[in-house]
Amino acid sequence: MPAPCSLLPDPRWWLFGIASLFFFFITAATFSSLGVALPYMIEEYAWSWSEAGAGFSLLALMVGLAGALPAWTIRRGGIRATYVSGAAVMACGFILIAAGTGLHLYWAGAGLLGVGFALCATVPGIHLINDWLPERRSFAIGLYMTLGGLGAVAGPPLVTAIIGHTDSWRLHWWAMTGATLALMLLAAIFIRPRPTGADATAAPQQEETSAQVFRTRADWRYREALRTPQYYVIVAALTLTLLCTLTMNSWAFTHLGMLGISTALATLALSAAGAVNALSRALGGLLATRIDPKWLLVAALVSEMIGMLALSVADNPLILTVFAIGEGFGFGLCFLATALLLLNYFGERDNPELLGTMNFLTTIAMIGPVLAGYLAGKSGGFSGAFQLNAALLLLLIVVVAAMKPPRQREAVTDRGAGAG
Q1: What 8-state DSSP symbol labels residue 191?
Q2: Using an 8 Å Cβ cutoff, are 241 and 332 in contact?
Q3: pLDDT for the residue numbered 195
Q4: Using an 8 Å Cβ cutoff, are 87 and 180 in contact?
Q5: Residue 13: count of CB within 10 angstroms of its CB
């Protein structure tokens, strides 16, 4: 009896579509939704900014702490078990937030959402792409991250639409619960690993890249890669960008309201940032075979810095547009470039572990919403927090621009050694 996916002309892209749908949904339903729903929850419960921001930080914290978990589940239970277990955990988190009656259940639900996010996001998605689409890797990863990034476009208007029509933020979280359970069923039926025998889909070992793009010829061992400074520069770039984005998602809606921006315009700006975020990933995926991802990362950090500076003073539509373009382009391209750099610098074999460890190390970014809430409580606004983020980005831009590709100790001939 044929596998369900064999009913389609090319099962590889069907599997790619399911992974992308997961990424789209979890982006829309977690980070992009919570910041918009929080003001309604704060109003009902009379929480402080710091208490509410702690839940957002806990979500980010658990995404990081669970960063290595999907690599473990993939090696032991397989790709299907990873997606199914992640969806089950996420559904429990939505239920706690929807049915909860106070701060501690909200925190517990946010923590479970973080674990579920880690299990359903980039580690299994990129692993699936490496398994099924190695000859189109850069394009497929860029498209996967683009489709996932569109969740940031859908999230804010989805929350405002549901709450606007039902006058209940709880119904939003119940709707997310139902959608998660539907995705869990989809994964259980269709997700599968790439076969290793005669039924395997034939594909080249690697995609073709320009001589200007560095790509290692030998897969690095996990522990060997962890000893390189380049690995930690890449981690630092994603960490700081995540800190900026988490802070923005937590407090931009509130901050813009304090600057006199209407709810409708603030929602439009956040959705526009999500749209640019998604488009930048597609563009990066197309360029990554011709331009070294290191330079894509430099461009991303510059753009993120401009976005943070604009957000700090975004009291009119023009500056709000600069924020949406800068932050959206910066985060989307950084997210893609760091993933591609790990593959190009260290190879595919231990990529789930290296990507998972990077996600774990980025846990420190969770201090962003809490720190911004604290600074806002002291100064009466969020502008200083966003400007501090921009200053840190400027320092990191210099470090990334000076970075060279890593070299293994043994004699290994690398293609594109002159890049960097």
Answers
A1: -
A2: no
A3: 63
A4: yes
A5: 15
Higher model confidence: residue 122 or residue 199?
Answer: 122
DSSP string, 88-143: HHHHHHHHHHHH--SHHHHHHHHHHHHHHHHHHSHHHHHHHHHHH-GGGHHHHHHH
Q: 289 in helix, strand or coil?
A: coil
pTM of the entire structure?
Answer: 0.79
Supply the mean pLDDT for the chain: 87
For the stretch 350-359, pLDDT in tens is 889 999 999 8
Q: What is the 3-state secondary structure (H, E, C) of 290-347?
A: CCCHHHHHHHHHHHHHHHHHHHHCCCCHHHHHHHHHHHHHHHHHHHHHHHHHHHHHHC
State the Cα–Cα distance between residues 75 and 349, nearest whole angstrom.
12
Sign of the Cα torsion 391, 395, 398, 403 reads negative
Between 45 and 49, the more confident residue is: 45
Side chain identity at residue 334, one-letter code: C
**Rounded Cα gap, residues 373 and 42, in angstroms:** 14
In sequence order, the 6+-apart residues with CB closer than 8 A to the CB of 13 are none
In 10 A of CB 412, how many CB atoms? 11
For residues 305 and 33, what is the distance between their CA atoms, to the nearest angstrom? Answer: 24
